[in-house]
From TrEMBL:
Residues 771-780 have a biased composition (Low complexity). It is found in: Cell membrane. Residues 756-780 are annotated as: Disordered. The lineage of its organism: Bacteria, Pseudomonadati, Pseudomonadota, Alphaproteobacteria, Hyphomicrobiales. Gene3D superfamilies: HAMP domain in histidine kinase (1.10.8.500), Methyl-accepting chemotaxis protein (1.10.287.950), PAS domain (3.30.450.20). This is Methyl-accepting chemotaxis protein. Residues 359-412, 440-492 form the HAMP domain.
Amino acid sequence: MRISTKLPLAATLFALVILSASVTIGLVQQSRILDEQVYQKLEATADGRRNEARRFLEAIQLDARATASDMMTQQALFGITGAWPKLGDNPAAELQKRYIDDNPSPIGEKYNLDSAKKDSYDRAHRQGHTTFLKHLQAQGYYDIFLIDVDGNIVYTVQKERDFGTNLISGPYKDTGLGKVFRKASESDDPAVFANSDFEAYEPSAGDPAAFVAVPIIMNERKLGVLAYQLPNDQLNSIFANTRGLGTTGETVLVDRAGLLVSDSPRTADMDSLRVSMSAPLLTDAINGQDGSGDIEGYRGMSSHAAVVPLDFGDVRWAVVALMGEDEILAQVWSAGLKSLGIGAILVLVGSLVGFVFSRSLTRPISELVTSMGQLADGNTNIDLKGIDRSDEIGDMVRSVAVFRQAEIDKRELEAENESRRTATESERHQREAERAAAQAELTEAIEVLGTGLQRLANGDLTATIRKPLVGNLDRLRLDFNTSLERLSATVASVHGNVAEINRKSGTVSSATADLSHRTEQQAAALVETSTAIRQIMEAIRHSSERAENASKLAREARANSDRSGEIVGGAVDAMSRIEQASSEISKIINVIDEIAFQTNLLALNAGVEAARAGEAGKGFAVVAQEVRELAQRSATAAKDIKSLITKSGQEVSNGVGLVRETGTVLSSIAGQVVQIGDHIHSIASTSKQQSASLNEINDAVARMENVTQQNARAAEQTNTEMAGLTRDAEMLSGLVGQFTVEAGASTLQNRFADQRDTGFSRPTQPPISQPAPAAAKPATRSFLKPKVAPAEAGNRAVASPARSLMDKISIGLGAKLTQAKDSKSDGEWEEF
């Protein structure tokens, strides 16, 4: 297939693939975005419905509390409960007969009868019924109940079959109404609020019903309970709003069992407490968590849903906002078809553009192929179109133009070469003769130099070339002779230096071995020093711990002493109060004594008067005598008590003195304990400081020990390297001995040695010595002094720093450690 066909086809396929991929990615992305938007809308809708329902329910709660606290409600319940006993043995049957069976209004309108006009109950009923009926119609409640403290439903607005029954023992005790009554009546909290979940309620023809209840309290006395039956229609109207949810979306209220509480606006049947839905989302919402996901099976479809919990009093429901997946997929397919239509148009336009563009590329290429075929046939007069273009086709045309010019130049060059070939043949023969002569001279020079190099390879450094060479080749001979002379002088110098290195290596090796031995001894001394310091540190640590324990005991003794002082002070105060009480008792005893004295006088006077009365006053005289004797006994007892109290006061005074002396002694002991504690604390602080100092000293000794060990290892390594250096020098000496040098090389060798001894480096171009006989020996040279000289007799012995350190430690701790005297000879090196 030609490129003119491939390019349009490739452009069309490329556009088709790119646009198909773009449409597919767009559909997937749009589907994902649409799902996110649907979930966001559902979450916002569910939250909005929850807020509406919560405001509605909270308004019911506030209204119930306000109605229960209203004076009219309290008076109505008070009047009705006062007339309740007059209804006979079966109040429920009597009330249902009056207001339900004999009520001329149809079912559902029984509230139109405000009074049966029979007794005081009917009069009380009429007074409150009008107000409660207006309130029910204004708020939209299904029913309003008044219940006394015994559980009797004494009043309702709707007059259903629960009217007059008892919620403790009656048929409806287990209903939601009975549950909220019991909670509201059993609590003593005036702010208590009870509510129930929706369930089928038999008196309301089995329709769903939920109840709220609050207590009615007047003058801190509980009269009964006010209860509302919630209006289902208003809840249904809240959740019937389907704005923004398409044709399948809705919001519903679901209880813990998964049953619908509100009626679905998308179905014609009654769904409340009859239709259920199940999904993990509902369980999460009942547990108090928001959620979103899919719900299967509800209304026979799969739905996207968002669920939020709704709490009201003791009940928790789930608000569910959902939308059918088919409706969402329909929107996606609609958007996809639009995208496919637009993509098809774009593919067609892209194909046309590709065809036109490919033709603009293939037409010049076809023309260029034709021109290249003509050029290949030898036609250099071809017409190249597009040579001025700036694109790749222009580059191709210019390349073909280069080929054409190259063909033209080739033909001209072939013609010129043919004319020159005949003229240069004679010149070639002449140049060949000249090259043969030069080659012969070069061969001779190579043979002479080869001979000299062969002698040099055999170690003969006297193999200079005496015969001059032809022309410029003689420069090679002179350079060879100069290099040979310099090499001879260098080898002679190396031979002398090798001997000197051997001698110095032996000296350094001996000194290094001595240094290694002494370093090992110093390391052993440092190890012993470190061990002793650690033992001292351990002893100081134990002393510091004991000092700290003693300080702690001293502080506790001081605290106990202070506490004892406080107790003694309290005892002194108590005894002072006992002393004051004794004084008060003494005063009371004095009063008793005076009363006894006065009683005695009165009894005496009574006896005198009885004696005057004669026979009639005998009995009174006996009584007076008895009273007198009692007064005397009281006086005697008062004197005895006074004596005992006086004696007790003296003992208390003595006890107070003794306790005060005890307090003084304890204060003195407390002061001494404080001083002891201060001394012990000072000792503990000093021990801690000594321990810290020894830690630092131990660290320093450890570092010195490490350095000494490193020095020992370095000395051993140096000794090993010097042995190796000696062996290398011997090998070098053997290698240098293979060379034969001239006698004049010794002068240059001595000059190098002198320069080394004086610290100067040898010159870059040493002077060339004159040839000398090979048997001449190198002159004697001087050597450099070794960098590490052995110890001499004049060196002084220096005491070990580690031993000095141990002396300082001993002085700081107050104990003198046993030292070994430094008995080293004067010839030994300094330790450490």
